[in-house]
Design goal:
Elements: H1 2-8, H2 12-24, H3 27-42, H4 48-62, H5 68-87, H6 89-99, H7 104-116, E1 120-122, E2 134-135, E3 140-142, H8 153-166, H9 172-178, H10 186-195, H11 205-210, H12 212-226, H13 254-265, H14 278-281, E4 299-313, E5 316-324, E6 329-334, H15 336-342, E7 351-360, E8 367-375, H16 377-384, E9 387-393, H17 398-408, E10 420-425, E11 430-434, H18 445-455, E12 460-463
Parallel strand pairs: 1-3, 6-8, 9-10
Antiparallel strand pairs: 2-3, 4-5, 4-7, 5-6, 7-8, 9-12, 10-11
């Protein structure tokens, strides 16, 4: 505004109109203001070329500039927040996260930033947590229960009131008996279990989730019984606590636990599903995403698919796949022909192996990855694995051979399949035997899981070298 006054004889009101026009970026208004500016500058003996140069500079600055009052205020706020983050990191991050609990993307961003600065997050806990994030000490923050999807502040306040009145919850059945189930419904309880909020009581999340219905029914029955009395009832104060009967189910493996955790929190909090594959895929994809560099030759990279968005190009629909391997996240462009042919391989939260070209993105300054081919992990195993090695120790029986035949038969394939080698050892001798080509198998996750359950993981190995 001052430049317009001095250089082009604008009045204060006219300079404010110029400011508004630049803020709205309307071409017709800007053309009108440019003409006024050049005319006014000529009265101060400033040539047309120089006047246009000054106007262009002002217009460019208007795209990102602040006036002095705004700049001063932002600078002061930036100084205050930087000081708090440096000297009171846990309290600062707890407050920041509490203000953004409704936005999962921001919660994840601030959690990652806090971890990079040495903050440790304690998991959500129905016996120790509160609605908001809370600092425990200078380096530890307790995760806020309010950041769990589907919980709701009213339900959490009921839980906290029950905990305050009756002390810590002892198990799922005790929890369901003590809370108001009209507010703390099944959906809320399941979200808390998936997020790990019951882990301090019982970390068998699969069992707890399967038993929610039974616990709610038991709580309803206990409430009905409390309103009934009889001649032979036990005296007051001597009531026997009701029994807890959980539904016994297998524990979740790490992948199942993380996927349920993501459902409740919106992201992987206590680990990353890629870690289960990291050692195996390192045998053929030697670089993590954080180590990628531009190069002419195609590169093999692996990661878990976090999300996919599609957009139209001149040649048809293309996709942008967000890949994450716990070391970094990177966007991979999948053009229309490959997208049409292999879109079924791109599944959220599943591992994806990509052959592609890595180059420098001149627009962003980062990396640009374009996919040439997409592989599932089973396909990558079939291409790069040398042999599936199984160790069978002890006395060979027809039952053992039959079990092996049953496990391998559904996965037999002659197309890109992997040979199977049996290593056998007993008290007298040991040998290795490669099964005929007719018994080559696809190395699906399910097959390897079944073999692990039967022979134990140390006796099942995929050999790449």
């Amino acid at each position: 505004m001052q430049t317009a006054q001095v250089a082009a004889n604008y009045t204060l009101g006219g300079a404010d109109l110029l400011r508004r026009a630049m803020g709205k970026k309307k071409p017709e208004e800007m053309a009108k203001q440019r003409e006024i500016f050049v005319t006014g500058a000529a009265q101060n003996e400033i040539g047309e070329a120089k006047a246009n140069e000054i106007f262009d500079t002002m217009e460019k600055f208007a795209g990102y500039g602040f006036n002095k009052s705004h700049a001063a205020a932002y600078s002061l706020v930036a100084y205050h927040t930087a000081w708090l983050k440096r000297h009171h990191p846990a309290a600062f991050m707890a407050a920041t996260l509490s203000s953004e609990m409704a936005d999962t993307d921001k919660v994840q961003f601030f959690c990652n930033d806090a971890k990079e600065n040495g903050i440790v997050f304690l998991p959500p806990d129905i016996n120790s947590g509160f609605v908001r994030f809370r600092p425990v000490d200078a380096q530890h923050v307790r995760y806020g229960l309010g950041a769990i999807k589907g919980s709701g502040e009213s339900a959490l306040n009921v839980i906290l009131a029950a905990r305050k009145d009756g002390g810590p919850f002892t198990d799922l059945f005790d929890f369901c008996r003590r809370v108001d189930k009209r507010v703390v419904n099944r959906r809320v309880i399941e979200a808390l279990i998936r997020a790990g909020a019951f882990d301090s009581i019982d970390d068998h999340r699969a069992k707890l989730l399967a038993s929610v219905g039974r616990a709610l029914d038991a709580a309803d029955q206990a409430e009905r019984n409390a309103h009934q009395g009889g001649l032979f009832d036990a005296p007051a104060g001597s009531a026997v606590p009701p029994e807890t009967h959980y539904i016994e189910v297998p524990r979740w493996n790490e992948r199942e636990r993380l996927l349920n955790e993501k459902q409740a929190l919106g992201y992987f909090f206590s680990g990353h599903p890629f870690n289960a594959y990291a050692d195996e895929v390192a045998a053929f994809a030697r670089r993590r995403l954080s180590d990628l560099e531009p190069q002419r030759e195609p590169t093999l990279l692996c990661g878990v698919v976090l999300g996919v968005r599609t957009q139209m190009s001149r040649n048809g629909k293309m996709a942008i796949v967000m890949l994450d391997d716990a070391s970094a996240q990177i966007e991979v462009t999948v053009y229309n022909e490959l997208w049409d042919a292999a879109r079924s391989k791109i599944r959220e939260d599943e591992l994806l192996v990509i052959e592609g070209k890595v180059s420098r993105d001149s627009f962003t300054g980062g990396l640009r990855v374009v996919a040439d081919n997409l592989l599932t992990l089973a396909e990558a195993r079939g291409r790069y694995a040398r042999v599936l090695k199984l160790s069978l120790n002890g006395q060979t029986t027809s039952e053992t051979a039959g079990r092996l035949r049953t496990l391998l038969s559904p996965y037999r394939s002659s197309d890109g399949a992997c040979p199977v080698r049996i290593r056998y050892r007993n008290a007298d001798a040991e040998t290795e035997l490669t099964l005929p080509d007719a018994w080559r198998v696809r190395l699906d996750d399910r097959l390897l899981e079944e073999l692990d359950d039967w022979l134990t993981p140390e006796n099942v190995s995929v050999i790449y070298h």
